[in-house]
Structure of Acetylpolyamine aminohydrolase:
Amino acid sequence: MLILQNDRHREHAGRHEMYRGRLVECVEVPERAELVLGELHRRGFARVERPAVRADMTVVESVHDLRYLAFLRQAWDHWIALDSANASFDILPSVWPNQGLRRDAPTQNFSAQVGRYAFDAGSPITRGTWDACLAGAASAIEAARRVASGSERGALVVTRPPGHHAGRDFFGGYCFLNNAALAAQTLRDAGHARVAILDVDYHHGNGTQSIFYRRADVLTVSIHGDPATEYPFYLGYADERGEGEGEGFNLNRPLPKGTAFDAWRRELDIALEAVARFGASALVVALGVDAYKADPISGFLLDSADFTTIGSLIASARLPTVFVLEGGYAVAEMGINVANVAEGFSLAG
Ligand code: OKP
Ligand code: ZN
């Protein structure tokens, strides 16, 4: 299996996120990707490549909104222009156009613009956020191209920040550009008529769902902690099934906090059946490993060995597959859990 790494991920390094009235240290840290790469290397996944080219903006601009992209690209410069002392702090929103306020208001105020594009106060924009995200997008697009051409059966994109909470024109949940959506769109553009995205991160991939909600060509399936109690709270319920042409092409399988692998695995069977019934010819896996029992911000009870099983069950779908790294915050063990998925997938032949 091909491993593609985003070698600019370190440039996104948030300092604080807002949580329960205080600024706490970010859990989505550069060390995460380093530990994954270290463990893959130890296991002998020798082919680790860095994508040589910049992200194809045609793909990025087909998934994301042009004004949102311009905002992200310029955000740090605008932040510093407000006050050079801002360089010591990250950008976080403090005001939002909810409750009847106008999201399309022609405001010139920078803070107001941040709030227009952010849906939480836990996802700081830093000096290197744009460059790190764009390099991540390049990795996801390149992985999808290699898999689409048939030169690889499977590819794993080791990148951060994650992407599945990012929508067409919004960021949140530590996510800015939706790497899984970019991979899926790339597979579509390469001729795969039906592409499925399977999201196994503990948190519902609200961004991915919203990007494809009205489309019948990309099936989105997610297994996650019940949003009635778990982040992102406002999306991810079982009754969200798609809209318009997309009706029937979104499947949510929320599970209660405390769910262990026997029940989780039954949901994976259901998800993979849906992918097969849909007739997907390619698969993107939004690979969060925060379903792990020791994850500090999640509530499922999976063991490290379960991730090997997940990898082999996904391989049993027999589809060209792009794995894109999402969450996982039990930093010490996340390398093992990601490498287990990769090994389970590879060894299943
Ligand atoms: C991103 B991904 C922790 C609060 C939770 C948001 C969680 C985002 C998860 N202090 N904040 O899906 O792993
Ligand atoms: Zn997550």
Remarks:
- The chain has one domain: 6-64+132-348.
